[in-house]
């Protein structure tokens, strides 16, 4: 069965086609039109501007996704669309497009949670890759990975989510203020590094590690120190707003002492900030995995592109004897393959006799949709 995924919750207009086979899921196309450059000059995403761009680009992205997959709309068995959480005007554009397709071509349609999508980025094999890499893929649906623990880290979310099965989630911890990706973006902005900040900070942190330890795998010493917020708290919640403020105060203090923010000082700030942010994520994830006796840890969300996070989580899960999975790099950011995949699992769980509820009439947007 071929599934068409549609994602417009933020600043990427994305449409993809995947094919669910008996034992694996194949990505046939993954079309994305990014608005990052447009929003960069505002330092963040402007919702109405995002919606206007989605409306402008979605037809073209749809055509590209079909052409790349060498199929047409008749070959599609299911439409899966993000219905929340996200920016309301942006979500509505994708939802309206998806509902219109479902109505016009009489296709079943399913509305999915954007975070359910991120979780399912772990089930996707990159186009053209045939070999099995245990860290990258849970291709075999029979895999005994449940209960699994998901660490979802993006620009809008930082969540630890227990997964008993596809669609069966329980949030056990989340950020009390800023999301971790948001903290990367805000710190980058105050250092004048541009938007989105995550990749910039990661690059400069790596530079510092290479210059001072010779490798990003070895810890480098820093004079600048930042706190590890809530690392010792008994719950599984996070807080990133204080860490961002610590960076702000450090930058002010350096300026007041007439210390120039040279490249090496900025690199050191990025390194120590990234280390502080990620240490908390890794420690809390491992603690939760032990407490809930989960069989696997799954990383996802835009921040899962961070190499240091991938390495630290992988290393610590191996030490604890827990299976660890991470999405292929091309599926870490917002895309529609993951939405198609989450939709497929929801559809597959429903008995054939009840599938009439997958109608265009029943799909509703919810900008604050929660996983559990
Ligand atoms: O999942 P995503 O593409 O969009 C949301 O749903 O929010 O996540 C975007 C976030 C941004 O905050 C961006 O700075 C962050 O992911 N990000 C990174 C890296 N690449 C993207 N953060 C840290 N290190 C990275 N390499
Ligand atoms: Zn996302």
UniProtKB/TrEMBL annotation:
Task: Please state the Enzyme Commission number of this protein.
Answer: 2.3.1.234
Cite the binding residues for substrate: 152-156, 185, 198, 306
Q: Which GO terms describe its molecular function?
A: iron ion binding; tRNA N(6)-L-threonylcarbamoyladenine synthase activity
A Pfam family of the record is TsaD
| Annotated binding of Fe cation, by residue | 114, 118, 334
Record's Gene3D superfamilies?
3.30.420.40
Can you give the residue ranges of the Gcp-like domain? 26-340
| InterPro entries xref list | ATPase_NBD (IPR043129), Gcp-like_dom (IPR000905), KAE1/TsaD (IPR017861), Peptidase_M22_CS (IPR017860), TsaD (IPR022450)
Q: Name one GO biological process term.
A: tRNA threonylcarbamoyladenosine modification
UniProt KW keywords: Acyltransferase, Cytoplasm, Iron, Metal-binding, Transferase, tRNA processing
Give the catalysed reaction(s), semicolon-separated: L-threonylcarbamoyladenylate + adenosine(37) in tRNA = N(6)-L-threonylcarbamoyladenosine(37) in tRNA + AMP + H(+)
Tell me where in or outside the cell this protein is found: Cytoplasm
Q: Which cofactors does the annotated protein need, by name?
A: Fe(2+)
Record-stated family: Belongs to the KAE1 / TsaD family.
Q: Please state what the protein is called.
A: tRNA N6-adenosine threonylcarbamoyltransferase
Encoding gene (name)? tsaD
């Amino acid at each position: 069965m071929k599934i068409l995924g549609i994602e417009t919750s933020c600043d990427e207009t994305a449409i993809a086609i995947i094919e669910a086979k008996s034992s694996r899921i194949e990505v046939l196309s993954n079309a994305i039109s990014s608005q990052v450059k447009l929003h960069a000059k505002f330092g963040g995403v402007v919702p109405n501007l995002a919606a206007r761009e989605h409306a402008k680009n979605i037809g073209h992205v749809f055509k590209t996704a079909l052409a790349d997959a060498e199929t047409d709309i008749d070959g599609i068995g299911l439409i899966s669309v993000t219905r929340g959480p996200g920016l309301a005007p942006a979500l509505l554009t994708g939802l309206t497009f998806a509902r219109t397709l479902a109505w016009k071509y009489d296709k079943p349609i399913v509305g999915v949670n954007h975070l359910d999508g991120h979780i399912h980025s772990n089930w996707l094999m990159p186009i053209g890759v045939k070999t099995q890499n245990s860290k990258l893929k849970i291709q075999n649906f029979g895999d005994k990975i449940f209960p699994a623990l998901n660490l979802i880290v993006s620009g809008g979310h930082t969540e630890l989510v227990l997964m008993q099965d596809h669609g069966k989630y329980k949030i056990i911890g989340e950020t009390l203020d800023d999301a971790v990706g948001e903290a990367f973006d805000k710190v980058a902005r105050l250092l004048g590094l541009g938007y989105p900040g995550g990749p910039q900070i990661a690059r400069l942190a790596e530079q510092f590690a290479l210059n001072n330890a010779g490798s990003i795998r070895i810890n480098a010493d820093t004079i600048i120190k930042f706190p590890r917020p809530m690392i010792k708290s008994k719950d599984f919640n996070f807080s990133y707003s204080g860490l961002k403020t610590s960076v702000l105060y450090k930058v002010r203090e350096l300026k007041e002492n007439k210390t120039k923010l040279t490249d090496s000082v900025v690199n050191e700030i990025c390194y120590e900030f990234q280390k502080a942010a990620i240490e908390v994520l890794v420690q809390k994830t491992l603690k939760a995995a032990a407490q809930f006796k989960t069989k696997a840890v799954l990383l996802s969300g835009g921040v899962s592109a961070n190499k240091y996070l991938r390495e630290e989580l992988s290393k610590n899960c191996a030490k604890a004897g827990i299976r660890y999975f991470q999405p292929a790099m091309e599926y870490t950011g917002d895309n529609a393959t993951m939405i198609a995949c989450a939709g497929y699992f929801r559809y597959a769980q429903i008995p054939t006799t009840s599938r009439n509820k997958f109608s265009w009439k029943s799909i509703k947007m919810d900008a604050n949709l929660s996983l559990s």
